[in-house]
Write a structure and sequence with these properties.
Blueprint lengths: L13 H13 L5 H9 L20 E4 L2 E3 L2 H12 L6 E5 L5 H7 L4 E6 L2 H13 L5 E5 L12 E6 L8 H5 L1 E11 L5 E9 L2 E10 L11
Parallel strand pairs: 3-4, 3-6, 4-5, 6-7
Antiparallel strand pairs: 1-2, 7-8, 8-9
Helix pairs in contact: 1-2
The protein binds S-adenosyl-L-homocysteine.
Length: 221
């Protein structure tokens, strides 16, 4: 691995991915299933070629349309929190974006439904997921704050854009005992929440202070 690498392919090599996973572990990610999936998932395929050499840095990167692919630490943290009470079978994701978090989930649960409001992002994500052979995913162009009623209830819901308050429709589509991980709050002061449905009640835990793009209501025309 110490040979010169004029085309920069080493930047996306297994060793580079291992370094990222070591970093996530040091930052407190302990679920080995999550770490193994992050190690195996080629994040460089989820960003523009010009950014591929930065794909295994622990940072968010632009994906166009004013959106970002989430930071690997945040993807790991949210996924770990979603799996903490037992592995969910049926998962709804709101905010497909690049499809990276979708790909991570699809390798850990039975089936993923993911909703994105920006059509060109959804189309690219669809191509990437198909290219990776991840067929247990259904994607939809829509405002995800309404969830995906036809497939509810979900064992888990993961939201990757921040609303000011948790959308009622998402709470309504969470199965009893189900878990939702969602960033909530105005930009610059959001909290990552873990919500668990307990009959008619909701148990709430604050996980982290986070920075997400806003959850935008409505579908662009
Ligand atoms: N998990 C994605 C994160 C993308 S950023 C990734 O790692 O690539 C959040 C995404 O949420 C953006 O693509 C944005 O367009 C989308 N989004 C924002 N509001 C939405 C809404 N109401 N419904 C569906 N998607 C939404």
């Amino acid at each position: 691995m110490s040979r010169p690498d004029p085309r920069g392919i080493g930047m996306t090599s297994q060793r580079t991915r291992d370094r990222l996973v070591d970093r996530l572990r040091r930052r407190g990610i302990a679920d080995e299933r999550v770490l193994a999936v992050l190690r195996a998932t080629p994040r460089h395929l989820f960003v523009d070629e010009a950014l591929a050499s930065r794909a295994y840095e622990d940072s968010a990167l632009p994906i166009g349309h004013g959106q970002t692919i989430s930071q690997p630490y945040v993807v790991a943290r949210m996924t770990e929190a979603l799996l903490a009470g037992g592995t969910p079978r049926r998962v709804l994701e709101v905010g497909t974006g690049s499809g990276y978090q979708t790909a991570v989930l699809a390798q850990l649960v039975e089936r993923v439904w993911s909703v994105e409001r920006i059509e060109p992002l959804l189309r690219r994500a669809r191509e990437r997921l198909a290219a990776l052979g991840l067929h247990n995913v259904a994607l939809r162009h829509s405002d995800g704050s309404w969830g995906w009623e036809a497939h509810a209830p979900f064992d888990a819901i993961l939201v990757t854009a921040a609303p000011a308050v948790v959308p009622e429709a998402l709470l309504a589509q969470l199965a009893d005992g189900g878990c939702m991980v969602i960033p909530v709050g105005e930009s610059g002061r959001q909290q990552l929440l873990r919500l668990v449905r307990d009959g008619d009640g909701i148990r709430r835990t604050v996980l982290d202070a986070v920075t997400f793009v806003p959850l935008v209501q409505g579908r662009p025309g």
